[in-house]
Design a protein that fits this description.
The radius of gyration is 26 Å and the shape is rod-shaped. The longest helix is centred in the middle third of the chain and has 40 residues, at 32-71. It contains 5 helices and no strands. The protein is mainly alpha-helical and 114 residues long. Helix 1 (7-20) packs parallel to helix 2 and helix 4 packs across helix 5. The protein has one domain (8-113): Ribosomal protein L20, C-terminal domain (c-terminal domain of poly(a) binding protein, Orthogonal Bundle).
Amino acid sequence: MPRSVNAVASRRRRKKVLDLAKGYWGSRSKVFTVAKNTVEKGLQYAYRDRKTKKREFRALWIQRINAGARQHGLSYSVLMGKLTAKGNGLNRKVLADLAMNHPEAFKAVVDSVK
């Protein structure tokens, strides 16, 4: 009796990996075993960097808030301390956007806690 192999599932599984490897250079997009390794590594980087992205954006927001606060004679830590004590509900993302794109609104926020 011939050996039964599920060719449909095997092909689908390999095709899924090769579709993820589209755009890679050379055998990384053509040869299944090479593509599989590359795709797995890429997915590891994607998982890791989703966490890193949050960290980097928070750092960027803090730098922007600090730059805006120093223009009005406060440091970042003093401003955030006063905002927290006042019970202001603005988060760092919004404050950074105000500092960058709406300086007059940011000045109003700073003046409200001075």
